[in-house]
Amino acid sequence: PRERIMGELYDTLREVADKRRERISDSLDEMEKLAALYEGEIPGEFEKYFPKGTPKHIVNYIRLGWDDLAQSIARRPEVQIDPEDATNPALVKSQKLEKIVQGYFNAARPWDSMFFFQNAWNLVGLGVAVAVVIPDAEARTPRPEPRDPRTALPGAKRRIGNIITELTDIIFEYEIAAEDAVEQGLADPESSGSTEDVKILEYIDDKIWAISSEYGDQRVPHNLGIVPASYIQTFAPNKIGISQFSEQISLMVAVSRIITQK
């Protein structure tokens, strides 16, 4: 049986994650509200404007605009790597690197189209897009993977104003089913039949990739020297990012209220 590893890493990450979440709690709450709105759930503060006991008719044009804008910008980028200097070896090197990157995109199919769409969807609708690069054992190549920015708690190494340009690390906070946690060595085997999800903290820096719970953890050194993740934000002076649709919520509520009263 697997030797139980006490959650020292989890306790450390829990402390850091709580501090980071507190700092950006307003922005994370806004993301949750917008994601719920996309699915037709009116924010609680607007419920008082609808007649009680009357079915609400939600005119969710924000969802249509959100999907349309995300689809329009979810394009595969043109890869261009400038040579370090004007010499022929530098030019050959840059061309080789371009082919390698294009090869990674080709190897990622059919996931690449969904990768670009999800990141575009998150960026225009939630104000932040997050991605990691994971190893694909079958294809033997790196594969980009989008992540939910509502679970992401970044550590900033460098900033330009409020925009993070380089990460020290990033923590993802989420829950998984108890059965899955047991399979990954992150929960007591006796809890495999539990209906309660297990809280997970996933940590990535420039040296290791770790997944941790209160029960134990799994750590894999990668020693890349860089954090294999990106945290992309829209500009906002006082937030980590801003949605293209946050200012349209009240208009959508007003239209829905009018339709509901008819």
Any low-confidence stretches, pLDDT <50, length ≥5? 1-7
Distance between the termini: 65 Å
Radius of gyration: 22 Å
Strand line-up across the major sheet: 3-4-5-6-7
Q: In sequence order, what are the helices and strands, one letter per element? A: HHHHHEEEEHEEEEH
Major sheet details: 5 strands, antiparallel
Number of E-type strands: 8
Percent of residues in helices: 25-40%
Number of helices: 7
Task: Describe the global form.
Answer: globular
* Helix and strand composition category: alpha+beta
**Whole-number mean pLDDT:** 86
Estimated share of beta-strand residues: 15-25%
Describe the structure.
The chain is an alpha+beta fold and 262 residues long. It has helices spanning 8-23, 25-38, 61-73, 88-108, 111-126, 178-183, 249-261, and strands spanning 128-136, 141-147, 152-160, 163-176, 198-205, 208-212, 217-221, 229-233. Strands 3-4-5-6-7 form a five-stranded antiparallel β-sheet. It has a three-stranded antiparallel β-sheet with strand order 2-1-8.
